[in-house]
């Protein structure tokens, strides 16, 4: 991250937290968010996934929601995910699911959160499907890793989590989780974290990212690289080709609405590509993280508003 983009990202995160901005954004509603959110509802999202599948792109579906306020709300999200897994099986689309631990109640009742997630992973297993526990901000890192390991201990190995390259602890976590056979998505990291625990500069984050990707590829475990960064994508292509790592051993993941033509191009070149497809009405926090990541995304949204 250079100083300009760090300042931009901090400013955006601060602006996103502002109540007036939030009210204004919510007033313009789905139109603003439609750049990054596939649909308000499950059936619409499934139609988008079917279209992606026709381009050779798989998906991971995310029923938007996070930081909920009650265990009843968490139960409603659990039910939405059970419905989602049934609908994926019924429709035959190529998609797994991603969920947020705080959406399942991690911040209010860790035991109930684990039970909700376990129900979802167990349902996915009936269909031979997979559940990714997204990684949120650092107060939840250890608990998310612990829940994933517990699922594995209970025989539910059709789950996995995410490691964020910006966290200084990540290389150690990567080794431990690989030893336990846990499936991981590797990302740079999307939240603001303090310098005591997280790299702040782009060069350090990229170096850490490459190092954990390489660790995975060298071990021969399936590697999911989630990034829109051309430098990372090209590096992975060159590294795997130079080391004779087959395309079946790794996948690229990108977000819905970002670099869609690049996603299609990679799929056409024979790479595995998975698109993260969010749907639902609780889009505000997801959407503001996307704006904070890249100044250009503000223009994409503005164009959408004027359309
Ligand atoms: P970054 O934003 O660093 O941009 C680097 C460069 O990429 C840009 O300078 C530009 O060259 C190029 N680029 C990026 N976007 C482009 C565009 N639209 N058009 C053209 N060029 C572009 N985070 C987290 O903390 N927990 C999680 O669970 C997840 N999950 C997740 C899933 C998936 C599928 C993805 C893709 C990402 C996440 N993330 C995440 C988010 C992640 O941590 C990170 O914040 C974003 O991916 C942004 O970092 P990038 O590496 O994509 O590029």
Counting structural domains, the number is 1
Give the CA-based shape.
Answer: globular
Work out the number of β strands: 8
Helix count from the secondary structure assignment = 13
**CATH domain topology:** TIM Barrel
CATH class: Alpha Beta
Approximate strand percentage: 5-15%
Q: Note poorly predicted spans.
A: none
Name given to the CATH architecture: Alpha-Beta Barrel
How would a textbook summarize the main sheet?
Answer: 8 strands, parallel, barrel
Distinct ligands, ions and cofactors found in the model: dihydroflavine-adenine dinucleotide
Radius of gyration over alpha carbons? 18 Å
Average predicted confidence as pLDDT: 89
Structural class: alpha/beta
Account of the protein in words:
This protein has one domain: TIM Barrel, CATH 3.20.20.220. Helices cover 54% and strands 14% of the residues. The protein is built from 13 helices and 8 strands. Helix 10 links the parallel strand 6 and strand 7. It is globular. It starts with a helix and ends with a helix. The mean pLDDT is 89. Dihydroflavine-adenine dinucleotide binds next to strand 4, helix 10 and strand 7.
Q: Could you provide a short overview of the structure?
A:
Helix content is 54%, strand content 14%. It has 307 residues and is of the alpha/beta class.
């Amino acid at each position: 991250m250079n100083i300009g983009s760090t300042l931009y990202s901090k400013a955006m995160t601060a602006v996103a937290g502002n109540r007036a901005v939030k009210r204004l954004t919510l007033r313009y509603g789905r139109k603003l968010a439609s750049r990054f959110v596939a649909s308000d509802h499950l059936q619409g999202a499934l139609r988008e996934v079917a279209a992606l599948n026709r381009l050779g792109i798989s998906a991971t579906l995310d029923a938007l929601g996070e930081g909920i306020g009650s265990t009843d709300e968490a139960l409603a999200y659990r039910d939405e995910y059970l419905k989602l897994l049934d609908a994926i099986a019924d429709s035959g689309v190529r998609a797994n699911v991603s969920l947020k631990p705080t959406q399942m109640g991690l911040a209010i009742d860790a035991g109930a959160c684990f039970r909700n997630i376990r129900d979802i992973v167990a349902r996915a297993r009936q269909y031979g499907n997979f559940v990714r526990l997204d990684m949120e901000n650092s107060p939840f890192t250890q608990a998310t890793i612990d829940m994933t390991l517990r699922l594995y201990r209970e025989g539910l190995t059709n789950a996995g989590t995410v490691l964020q390259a910006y966290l200084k602890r990540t290389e150690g976590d990567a080794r431990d989780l690989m030893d336990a056979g846990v499936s991981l998505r590797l990302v740079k990291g999307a939240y603001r974290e303090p310098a005591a625990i997280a790299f702040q500069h782009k060069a350090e984050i990229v170096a850490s990212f490459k190092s954990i990707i390489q660790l995975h590829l060298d071990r021969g475990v399936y590697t999911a690289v989630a990034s829109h960064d051309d430098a990372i994508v090209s590096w992975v292509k060159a590294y795997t080709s130079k080391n004779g790592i087959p395309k079946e051993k790794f996948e690229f993941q990108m977000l819905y609405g970002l670099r869609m033509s690049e996603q299609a191009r990679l799929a056409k070149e024979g790479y595995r590509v998975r698109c993260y497809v969010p749907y639902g009405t609780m889009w505000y926090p997801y959407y503001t993280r996307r704006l904070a990541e890249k100044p250009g995304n503000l223009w994409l949204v503005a164009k959408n508003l004027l359309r």
